[in-house]
Specification:
heterotrimer, A alpha+beta, B alpha+beta, C alpha+beta, A: Uridine Diphospho-n-acetylenolpyruvylglucosamine Reductase, domain 2, Uridine Diphospho-n-acetylenolpyruvylglucosamine Reductase, domain 3, Enolase-like, domain 1, 5-stranded antiparallel beta sheet, 12 helices, B: alpha+beta, DNA polymerase, domain 1, 2 domains, about 35% helix, binds FE2/S2 (inorganic) cluster, iron (chain B), (2Fe-2S)-binding protein (chain B), oxidoreductase (chain B), 2Fe-2S_ferredoxin-type (chain B)
Chain lengths: ~290, ~160, ~800
């Protein structure tokens, strides 16, 4: 199992990378390589050219803004885990990332790689949807921003044009005191999830749900927001019964199935994971301090 | 022609090396075949078994998922660089004491994974050790002795580091 | 023989002599060999489970720069006495057609079967060329279900065979029908065990070097059977056996997977000879998933008869064994499964009808446990069923049926394939059970379980016994030689593949000869040093090679003492050997080093030679073994089941092992622990899956799930030592007994955890989806029965 031959380019700047991408019809971007290289080694992919963006300057920054945190496409998953900014402002992502693969694969795996590979079971796309991600796509023609709904078009299919490259993702930082929970079930820790759920909850001074997000992973071609569950929770006190009722709405959303995880099974898992994620998020959320 | 070989240099176990490889050659294959450093093993070539784990600029990586050309200019550490001359590294000693290796095929990758862990976290919990090891498959040992060896080595290394 | 004290190291936790090189990355595995001028091979493999080969076009591949040869079955035919591999195990009286060809000739019988070998300047180029080989296939219907394969009118897995039945046989004794007629209770169940494998971390690999100048073929192979490989290659390539040398380098695990002469080994050797070159083939992991042997796929339908006290009266049933496309080891796996079923229990009557069936799947030969885990699973599950039926405690019903220590040696009415009686040599099964129950806290578990259930947690406890025949003969070679520098070399046809064999043999030689372990070198699995050998399988090596080395070392010692007695003018009885010196006991200074004696026994041309001894300070022995030494184990584990996901976590694991005397307890711990974790894979994770066309669905380590550090629970190891009376060391093999009861114990524990739901399990591995499916079918919708436990 040796990769087929390819031409290799290692641009140092974004402009150089975008220039190469514009000029090469059959090129693939090589980021962390944790998904692409196995496919090359198994000869399931045979691009003529690889554009290695590991040394492109400036793609590995984590920038904290007032209500958004911007992650460069080449931020390593391990760096996310370690980042105080991510822990503080994006606790959902911090929890999700710790469940990706293993420490050694997270050392190389990147934010952008995970988003562009768009495996239905991947953690980062699910967290990104919950965090209202804006995806920054660049090409020699310019830069544009895509919402997650425009980016995640289908099973492992992004809305990027062939000459475009994902350079960053801007994630909504929820206000301090919100609670986050990410739960997933896999055969072994580190395997691709058979179902996952990401939940964000903010409570008001009375302990009622003020804002909420519930996203499922590994249940459909792309991550899925369960708006009915969110609507059910809004304005109400999230006790065990309400959480269970809301989580039960996750099951019917499931459309993905395979012999290892038939529909009925994934549906039960989705409900269970939704319940766990919501329970964790609610438990971690503070009641909003009422201004004196 | 597509994929013509190119010359690259890197530091391997502190030694500057230059080699000429096709871009498609993995770092694992380059270490093993071009540099004769056969301590790094290849068990799957699809990034799951962890046998090929080496350190690149101090970070543990799967060398089957990194092309050698990508390692240009980096400092690579392999199992061959671990021992201190004729003395084994404390982690290696602990592996021997605890019988943390049987066939020894997974061992180099396991050692390098743990080297990274112990540098970052000199007093890891058992859970942290198991988590670090979770990406290394070992068919022989049942892992328990590896975990014990890692915790024991941490104690030895901590004592060494104490003033 | 004279004074010999078994001293120093036997029975102690000596660190392994294998370790330093392996820890430094200085091991020498087959892929580490870098011989000048090596060419590299890749195989074109059948993409169909069953297909006729209509034509092969290799022109494009041959045209690729760097390609040395592209060989098909037609090209290999003139190079080999027979393209088909020979039957190594003839006792099943199977026809030659049960064996594969070195390369597929007319008909591919499983996905992954090698069709063409490509030899090139590098593996990369060989793979590039392999992609250019065009094979025209006519797909044929694939047989993938061994039960359906037996139906009249079923498609044939091999078009030239009469049917799909390799063989049908019975293992039977006692008055079965009468027992069932008079039974107080009968429990019956169907069981299914799915495919799993050895999955060593090092794949297979072979390097073959042919030198026309010397007429020698040297082969380095990651094999468990070097002598058999040499014999096969010599015969098929028409070379004298002494022109063929097979060397086993460090082997990165075998677990049965490498105990076979494979088609690729013959093809690579033939290519090396044809090219008069060195050819290397290292199997990649995806090839491994479709071409290295597998095991464990069986369907059982069994019933058990008991009296009112829960005593066994009889067991009968049928076993359909999926043998895959070929039967290279005859019927040994299903035979072992059927004969191992009674296990540690006194069973008065038994009748098992076994059908060994051909399918279009990867062939089956023994994997760690060799068919025993299946027999054990069936028997132990039935024991649980019987306990429930009769309202008896699970441990109590076992205790009532265990063979008692005063019945040892216990001859069962069964015979081995070779016709020898199956007789358990020693052991105290009830004592092992008592130890294990105590350690897991069996008596207090009911209260713990009730408390957990009240808190909505589902914990369960499972137990299982195992008995394993070890030390398979007929013999193993052991050559012990004191070198002129005083170091001791030990050579054996047994095979080191990670188990610490070299250390164990070094300990035996060192203690017998009075030298430190560090001064012993062990060379295992090199046909250039010992002419006979059987390799590594069936937990045999410490027993067989250990005994031969012990006997050879004793002979060397005798010789050394005889010579020293002359030199020191002392009676041999007054001599001792310490630290490599033969000394007159109690007379300091009166000593002669072994090295000097070794030098003298080399002889000098024309000079006198010591009287009464033969040349060379060395001896070779082939200790003979007609009977197996039976190791046994009792396992108990505690699990927790998540009833929302079907996930299982093993909380605690206790293993009581009796493998006789332990030469090195450190190594035995390692064997048992590794076996248990392999067993956890069998119980919960590992499953080779395929679709109805026989297309494998598990071709990466992301699909075929090996246990990781997260899946391995805390394991407590306990031992009893019942020395085997069958060998001078009192040892029994420890390599497999650890794996055998695990599936039974874990599944029993899962079932116990879910008892409030009435869930029953009769298969393995137990996937989360299967667990939840069962819960849904039984009680989950309505919640647990009797208000026990918590609803999810
Ligand atoms: S060889 Fe690299 S992870 Fe298995
Ligand atoms: S020691 Fe053999 S695979 Fe780990």
């Amino acid at each position: 199992m040796k990769a087929p031959p390819f031409d290799y380019h290692r641009p140092a700047s974004l402009d150089e990378a975008l220039g190469l991408l514009a000029g090469q019809p059959d090129a693939r971007i090589l980021a962390g390589g944790q998904s692409l290289v196995p496919m090359l080694n198994m000869r399931l992919a045979a691009p003529a050219t690889l554009i290695d963006i590991n040394r492109v300057d400036g793609l590995d920054r984590i920038e904290e803004g007032a209500d958004r945190v911007t992650l460069g496409a080449m931020v390593r998953q391990r760096a996310l885990e370690a980042s105080p900014v991510v822990r503080r402002r994006l606790p959902l992502l911090a929890e999700a990332v710790a469940q990706i693969g293993h420490p050694v694969t997270r050392n190389r795996g990147t934010v952008g790689g995970s988003l562009c590979h768009l495996d239905p079971a991947a953690e980062i796309p699910a967290a990104a949807l919950a965090l209202d991600a804006r995806l920054v796509a660049a090409s020699a023609r310019g830069t544009r921003r895509l919402a997650m709904e425009e980016f995640a078009l289908g099973m492992m299919t992004t809305g990027l044009e062939p000459d475009e490259m994902l350079v960053a993702v801007e994630l909504a930082a929820w206000p301090e005191g919100h609670g986050a929970g990410f739960a997933e079930f896999a055969r072994r820790p580190g395997d691709f999830a058979m179902a996952s759920a990401a939940a964000l909850v903010a409570l008001d001074g009375a302990g009622r749900v003020d804002a909420v997000r519930l996203v499922l992973g590994a249940v459909a071609a792309t991550p899925l927001r369960v708006t009915e569950a969110e609507a059910m929770l809004m304005g109400r006190t999230p006790d065990t019964t309400l959480i269970a009722e809301a989580a039960a709405l996750a099951g019917p959303c499931v459309t993905l199935e395979d012999p290892q995880a038939p529909l009925w099974y994934r549906a039960r898992l989705a409900t269970a994971m939704a319940k766990r994620a919501l329970t964790a998020a609610v438990g971690r959320a503070d009641r909003k301090r009422v201004a004196a | 022609m597509t994929g013509d070989p190119r010359a690259i240099s890197m530091t391997v176990n502190g030694r500057e090396v230059t080699l000429t490889v096709e871009p498609r050659v993995s770092l694992a294959d380059a270490l093993r075949q071009d540099l004769g450093l056969t301590g790094t093993h290849v068990g799957c070539e699809h990034g799951v078994c962890g046998s090929c784990t080496v350190l690149v600029d101090g970070t543990a990586v799967r060398s089957c998922l990194l092309f050698a050309v990508q390692a240009e200019g980096t400092a690579v550490e392999t199992v061959e660089g671990l021992a201190r001359g004729s003395a084994l590294h404390p982690l290696q000693e602990a592996f021997r004491r605890h019988h943390a290796l049987q066939c020894g095929f997974c061992t180099p990758g396991v050692l390098m994974t743990l080297v990274e862990l112990l540098r970052a976290d000199p007093c890891p919990t058992e859970a942290a050790v198991r988590d670090a090891l979770s990406g290394n498959l070992c068919r022989c040992t049942g892992y328990q002795p590896i975990v014990a060896a890692a915790l024991d080595a941490a104690t030895v290394l901590a004592a060494e580091a104490a003033p | 023989m004279t004074a010999t004290v078994m001293t120093a190291t036997l029975g102690t936790r000596v660190p392994r002599i294998e370790d330093p090189a392996l820890l430094r990355g200085a091991g020498r595995f087959v892929d580490d060999l870098r011989l000048p001028g090596t060419l590299h091979a890749a195989f074109v493999r059948s993409p169909y489970a069953h297909a006729r080969v209509l034509g092969i076009d290799t022109a494009d591949a041959r045209a690729l720069p760097g390609v040395a040869a592209v060989l098909t079955a037609a090209d290999l035919t003139p190079l080999l006495t027979d393209l088909r591999l020979p039957i190594a195990f003839p006792e099943g009286q199977l026809p030659p057609e049960v064996m594969p060809f070195a390369l597929v000739r007319d008909e591919a019988l499983h996905v992954g079967e090698p069709v063409v070998i490509v030899v090139a300047s590098s593996r990369r180029v060989a793979e590039d060329a392999a992609e250019r080989v065009v094979v025209e296939y006519e797909p044929l219907p694939a047989v993938t279900d061994p039960r359906a394969a037996l139906d009249a009118g079923a498609e044939r897995a091999c078009s030239t065979a009469d049917g799909n039945l390799f063989k049908r046989f019975r293992v039977a004794f006692g008055e079965v029908d009468a027992a069932f007629a008079g039974a107080h209770a009968v429990v019956a169940e169907r069981f299914r065990l799915h495919r799993g494998g050895g999955s060593p971390m090092e794949t297979r690999g072979v390097v073959a070097r042919h030198c026309s100048e010397s007429g020698e073929l040297t082969v380095w192979s990651s094999t468990q059977m070097p002598h058999e490989l040499r014999h096969t290659l010599a015969e098929r390539l028409s070379l004298p056996e002494d022109r063929v040398r097979v060397v086993t380098p460090d082997v990165g695990g075998g677990f049965g997977t490498k105990y076979l002469v494979y088609p690729e080994e013959v093809a690579v050797a033939a290519a090396a000879r044809a090219l008069d070159a060195t050819v290397k083939w290292i199997e990649d992991r995806q090839e491994h998933f479709v071409s290295a042997i597998q095991e464990r796929d069986q369907h059982w339908s069994v019933e058990m008869a008991l009296d009112g006290d829960g005593r066994l009266l009889a067991v009968r049933g049928t076993l359909v064994h999926d043998q895959g496309a070929y039967a290279p080891h005859s019927v040994n796996v299903p035979f072992n499964s059927a004969t191992s079923l009674p296990g540690p229990y006194a069973l008065p009557a038994y009748d098992m009808d076994v059908a060994v069936v051909r399918t279009n799947l990867v062939p089956v030969i023994p994997v760690r446990g060799a068919g025993y885990p299946q027999g054990c699973f069936v028997m132990e599950r039935l024991m649980d069923r019987a306990a429930e039926r009769l309202g008896l405690d699970r441990a109590e019903i076992r205790r009532r049926n265990l063979i008692r220590p005063d019945q040892m040696p216990y001859p069962t009415p069964m015979r081995t394939r070779a016709g020898a009686p199956i007789a358990y040599d020693s052991g105290d099964y009830p004592a092992c059970q008592a130890m294990g129950l105590e350690a897991i806290g069996y008596d207090g578990f009911g209260a713990r379980q009730a408390a957990a259930r009240a808190a909505g947690r589902h914990i369960g406890l499972g137990i299982a016994h195992a008995v394993k025949g070890t030390g398979r003969g007929p013999f193993e070679s052991g050559l012990v030689r004191v070198m002129p520098d005083g170091r001791v070399s030990v050579y054996t046809g047994a095979l080191a593949m990670g188990q610490g064999l070299k250390t164990a043999l070094a300990q035996i030689a060192a203690d017998t000869l009075g030298v430190p372990v560090e001064r012993v070198d062990v060379i295992a699995g090199d046909t250039g040093f010992v002419s006979l050998g059987h390799g590594g399988y069936a937990s045999r090596q410490t027993v067989t090679a250990g005994s031969s080395v012990l006997m050879a070392a004793r002979a060397v010692r005798e010789k050394a003492l005889a010579v020293a007695s002359g030199l020191l003018e002392a009676a041999a009885a007054d001599l001792v050997i310490r630290d490599g010196m033969v000394e007159v006991d109690g007379v300091p200074g009166m000593a002669v080093p072994l090295a000097r004696i070794a030098g003298m026994l080399r002889g000098l041309p024309g000079y006198a030679f010591p009287d009464g001894v033969s040349a060379g300070l060395e001896a070779v022995e082939h200790a003979r073994f007609d009977q197996l030494a039976y190791a046994n184990a009792f396992h108990a584990c505690e699990v927790e089941v998540d009833v929302e996901t079907g996930g299982v976590r093993i909380l605690r694991y206790v293993a009581v092992t009796d493998c006789g005397r332990r030469i090195n307890p450190l190594i035995v711990d390692g064997q048992v622990t590794g076996g248990i974790v392999h067993g956890i894979g069998n119980a919960l994770l590992e499953e080779f899956r395929h679709d109805e066309q026989g297309q494998p669905l598990t071709t990466t380590f992301a699909d075929y799930l090996l246990p990781t550090a997260h899946d391995a629970p805390p394991i407590e190891l306990l031992y009893r030592e019942s020395p085997s009376p069958l060998n001078p060391l009192g040892v029994k093999g420890a390599g497999e007994v650890g794996v055998i009861p695990v599936t039974a114990a874990v599944v029993s524990a899962v079932e116990d955890a879910l008892a409030p739901f009435g869930a029953r399990f009769a298969e393995a591995p137990l996937s989360p989806v299967r667990i939840l499916e069962t819960l849904l079918q039984t009680g989950l919708r309505t919640g647990p029965r009797n208000g026990e436990g918590g609803t999810p």
